[in-house]
Amino acid sequence: MPDPVVPDPVIPETPAAGLISLNSAIKHITLTEPRAYFVDVTEAAPTLIVGLMAGEAGKNIGNPALYVRATNEASSGESGEFDCVSNYTSGEYEYCVIDNVEPGRYHILVDASASDAAVDATLYTSTTLFNSSKRCDEVDVQVRAQDLTAAQTDEVCRSLRDTKARFDTTLSAAISPAFGDIVEGDKNDITNVNIFSSRRNHKLWVEHLFNNDNGSGIYFESEATDWLHRSDVFTFNALEWNGGRYKIRSLDHEYTHALDARYNKEGEYDESKGFSWWSEGLAEYIGIHYNNPYQNMTTASETTKYSLQQVFNGAANAYSWGQLVVTFLLEQKPAIVTQILTQMRAGEWNELKSLLAQVATDSQADFEAWYQGQLRSDYVASVTSITVGEFTELTGRSGRLYVVDVAAGTDSITFSTSSGSADIDLYVNQGAAFHPSDANAATAQSVTKDSNEESVTITNPVVGKYYIAAGDSFAGSDIIDAYLSVCVGSNCSVALPDPMAVTYEIEPYMPYWPAKGTIGSCNLAQSYSSGAGNATGLTITNTTDNNVDVYWVSRDSGKKSGSAYASLAKDAVYTETFWKLGDRIMLTDPAGECLGVAILNDTNNEFSLVVEN
Question: Is 351 a catalytic residue?
Answer without folding.
Answer: no
